[in-house]
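One record is given unchanged without comment:
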Amino acid sequence: MKNKQQTILFLNKRGFSSFVSCRKCGYVPKCPNCDISLTYHKKGEYLVCHYCDYKMEKCDVCPSCGSEQIRFFGLGTQKVTEEIEKLFPSATYLRMDADTTSRRFAHEEILNKFRTEKTDILVGTQMITKGLDFENVTLVGVIAADLSLYRDDFRSGEKTFSLLAQVIGRAGRGDTEGRAVVQTYYPENEIFEYAANQNYEKFYKNEIVLRRQMLYPPFCEIMIFTSASDSEKCAFDTLLNFRSALLEKIKEKSVMADVFGVQSAPMHKINNKYRFRFIMKMNYNREIYDYIHSLLKNFYKDDVSIIADVNPVNMY
């Protein structure tokens, strides 16, 4: 700021606080339509579900026990901007996330303002990690870099490395050398070292060994079969029958495959639909794939859906 240079702060979570909880009884406001806690947004003083957009007013008194010990936990981009106002009251800043870019052309307006008016700090989610080329940006800060590292996803390391390498690359694109600061609770993890040094080759060599040992893509294909229905029992039973039919075909053709059991999906309920899933590991087999297509048609019903996702981008 003293040198009239610019900063980008990256946090891949919007809102103010990740969840709200009563310190006395442990009550957490949850979405009635989805299996997730509500996120607090300070601007507007409301709680919202980021999956179905359900909203409710912020509660100052616990509806479960009547206590006033309501506390806010976690952080989002709104909380970061509040901290900026406290620490650097003279700084100008912009926030770029799904909340501030919902209007038409809002994305371009924010970036143009950051470029032309030389705003001190740009705070944003994943949308600021790539494609931005500002010569005056000499500092990048990554807040809570562990958020994407410990997810139930075989690509979590790859996604974290990619995000960090991209956002770190936003600093020092002009004549002045750039600097990146990454906040993590696990700095010993090799991924942070590889990303800091922009070392794609070392990351690849380390990751490919892990993928081979765990039999993850590209050494096999992972398929996730997910059912969804208004009825929890219908979603479970339908997927269980689907899995049984698939197993019979696999045994009949003597195909090598790992077929895991049916379980609740990590996001068990979205938009009032109950979700179950099972995972299968298998090398590509045209006959089995054709059979899966026919099975999906046979199991198509109005009250339940089954989706097959090969090497899924998201595992929820």
Summary: The helical segments are 77-87, 106-116, 156-168, 190-196, 200-214, 232-252, 286-298. The longest strand covers residues 273-282. The mean pLDDT is 91. The first helix runs from residue 77 to 87.
